[in-house]
Amino acid sequence: MAGKPDLPDLKALHDQRKADRDNIRATVRGVVRAAREEARSRAVARAEAAKTFAGVKLPESLRDNMELFLRLLREVLSEYGPELRTTFDELLADLIAADERGVVSATGASEEDESFRRAYELIHGLDVEQQTMVTRALTVYFHLANLSEENFRVETLHNREREVSLDSDVDESNALAVAYQQLIDEAGPDRAAELLERLEFHPVFTAHPTEARRKAVEGKIRRISRLLEERPRLGGSDLAENERHMLQEIDALLRTSPIALKKPTPVEEADTIVDIFDNTLFDMVPQVYRRFDDWVLGEDAGRVPPACPAFFHPGSWIGSDRDGNPNVTAKVSRAVAEKFFTHMVETLADKCYRVGRNLTLDNDHTQPSAELVNLWNHQVEMSEKLTSRAELISESEPHRAVMLVMAVRLSATVKRNADTMYRSSDDFLADLRVVQRSLAEGGAPRAAYGPVQTLIWQTESFGFHMVEMEFRQHSLVHSRALADIHEHGRNGERGALQPMTREVLDTFRALGSIQKRYGIKMARRYIISFTKSAQNVADVYELSRLAFAHPEDVPTIDVIPLFEQLEDLENCVDVLNDMLELPDVQRRLAETGRKMEVMLGYSDSSKDAGPTTATLALHAAQERIAQWAEKNDIDLVLMHGRGGAVGRGGGPANRAVLAQPKGSVNCFFKVTEQGEIIFARYGNPVLAQRHVESVAGATLLQSAPSVEKTNTGMTHKYAGMASKLYDASHERFLDLIHSEDFAPWFSTVTPLTEVGLLPIGSRPAKRGLGAKSLDDLRTIPWVFSWSQARINLAAWYGLGTACERLGDLELLRSAYKEWPLFSTFIDNIEMSIAKTDGRIARRYLALGDRDDLSKKVLDEMALTRKWTLAIVGDEWPLQRRHVLGQAIRVRNPYVDALSISQVRALTALREKQEEMSQEERELYIKLILSTVAGVSAGLQNTG
């Protein structure tokens, strides 16, 4: 008999289920407790982060983002090592307390209080590796703070745009539209349209090494920027995932060395331009044109011919500026030109293909013009293979077929296929306009003046070259090369030529080959540094001829004199008069409609004469050159060699344009863009768009009668005051730099030597023509080093003494209110002073053991601060510029910590270098270079 089946133990089963339920409840309670604990922890972290900003009045969204990033950074620091976060917190607490008194005092922080000394001793107690990690943490925060400010500026611009009604007379958020409307009001619509047609903004991107941030760091910053931009649209788990990604990127930033592993080659430096082009310029520039059209043409925009000309034409010195940079050779210039050309044409090919693919307008409803049919037949005759893939759609969708073949022809242009390639961007433009006219005539104007017009604008702006390369070399190199050739023969018939002479000749051959291969727009400008006479210009034309056996191979070049030192600025018109006597110059004037470019150097003039004298001398030189051009019927283009720092002509570009003398702009503004300024102005598409509109609007508005009247009238009204400031500041500046052993003292009290070790550019810190004194030092390390020492001497030295001698505060205040040049200059000085710190400056100056020079610097700093604040009516720097002033106040304690670490390391190197092992020395140098990168990120406009 079968046994009965076993019955389950009901009690055991009940007990098991109860135990399971209890375990689940316990697990849930644990998760809830953990979540509450995490929430409390986050609340504490938020409260801790908020304390940092308690004393400043930042806009809510900006403060929230800065608090967010500080909280996330502190979390990452805790994960890396709790002691690192503790040190970070203690250091900032002391420096925030120390800064509260110093920032608002009348003369600026110069005495060290207990909090500052505690911070100094805390850093002093850390070993080099610990200091390096603190430095990295601070540098990461600056990158995050910069992103917060960038995000706030973008948000502000979007808010302004949302406030503009479509019924308004003008788009107040678009500086170009506002300027054009003002021109119409003042000069009439015909004159305004004439000036608009002349408009050109020509930024020239250079490889000057003031961008201390490595490319690997830039990529992480961009990714965090995108995550920050997404946050307002997210919630729940999406927001949590966003934060997790942020923590991941911030952790990677902390663990990534801020210093590149090696100096970039000039060819690698060209990637900076390619990167900006891909991420911003290519799509942003036509958007600027489109926004202008949207407002000016109203409802007709996008279905009638455009009103906005393609006025943005970028240039580049990267791979072609060989002044003092032996790494830029003829071979390098060829390679860089090929990189720009290849990338540009490939980009156009891709865009042409995408536009063409979407032109699916059929033959029945959009009849092609006879001109388009003829273009298709020409394409078939050119190559049946070329048109075979598009032939099937040619009868039903002819516009699409033609555009797709054009895209293939662009690809053939890259490959140098002689049968099917485009010979120039003008030929490609001609085909685009055939398509555009056919679409418009066929009843499809929105396709004609929408996507096809965008591609036309892009081609008009960038051509096949992307950027117009400009060659530059020192005048002394040319004269030495000619003397060598005259002595030994062009081909060394009477003895071997010097290597530099051979390189000079090879440079002209490279320029010629670039023109033949990629077109004259790729490279036709040749700038002469330190132009002293018309003979320097004649030398370049002669060398250009000597480089070629056959006259027909000699390239077309426009030789541009560069006046940069004070004596050269004063003599510039005499040199220009002599230039007009040269047959080569007369020939080019006839070929270009009497257009001539002249370049002015803001950097060397400032180092040569002091910032106040240089500013006034440059303004006077521009006025004289403009008058000379008018007298000689010259269509003048003035190129401004400005840097990002105030000591190199930096500051808001639109205000600088509006302050130029009458006749010196003529709707054409050309300026160098370099270092961290390139990324700051063109890294974000929205900010880049605003920058281009702002500068273009100012360039247009500078020709308005009211602006010309103000600039001319106020320049003459305050000429007497300017003359006194010029003389007194010049005397004070020369007294300092001509002091005995000033150059070695400068090298000792700043990280000049160490800055030269930074792998941030292919260019050496000295020109290589026998650098034995301050005269041979490049201006960039001069400005960069003073900014690192928190002194910023290059921006302001001499102004305080000049104002003191003048002694007329009411006159200075009147000039500040009425004279655009003076108000722009003083505002830039105030911004520069806001980034100085007397306490830290004293520590740097003490490295030099020259009390006399230290006293001159500190006395002038206090005097300049006093007069600048009195002129603008502030109690502390940037008090009236609320967002900028408060943002700098937030940054200062963080920069202070880096500066203390840097000066401590410099002190150790200066005093104990002989006792250090090679390994110890390398650790200190690594620390200093890390602080340099951090201070650069904190101060931003360093070069």
Secondary-structure blueprint:
Elements: H1 10-52, H2 60-80, H3 82-104, H4 114-124, H5 128-163, H6 175-187, H7 189-198, E1 200-205, H8 215-230, H9 236-255, H10 266-297, E2 315-316, H11 330-357, H12 370-382, H13 384-394, H14 398-414, H15 425-441, H16 445-448, H17 451-462, E3 468-474, H18 475-488, H19 499-518, E4 523-529, H20 534-546, E5 558-563, H21 566-579, H22 583-591, E6 595-601, H23 602-609, H24 611-631, E7 635-641, H25 653-658, E8 668-673, H26 676-682, H27 685-701, H28 705-717, H29 719-737, H30 742-749, H31 752-755, H32 779-788, H33 793-796, H34 799-806, H35 809-818, H36 820-834, H37 838-845, H38 851-872, H39 882-912, H40 918-939
Helix pairs in contact: 1-2, 2-3, 2-5, 2-9, 3-4, 3-39, 4-39, 5-8, 5-9, 5-39, 5-40, 6-7, 6-27, 8-9, 10-11, 10-17, 10-27, 11-14, 11-17, 11-19, 12-13, 12-14, 12-15, 13-14, 14-15, 15-17, 18-19, 18-20, 20-21, 21-24, 23-24, 23-32, 24-29, 29-34, 34-38, 35-36, 35-38, 36-38, 37-38, 39-40
How would you describe the overall organization of this protein?
The protein contains 40 helices and 8 strands. Strands 1-2-3-4-5-6-7-8 form an 8-stranded parallel β-barrel, surrounded by 8 helices. The termini are far apart. The chain is globular. It is mainly alpha-helical and 943 residues long.
Which terms would index this structure?
67% helix; globular; eight-stranded parallel barrel; 8 strands; 943 residues; 40 helices; single chain; mainly alpha; disordered N terminus
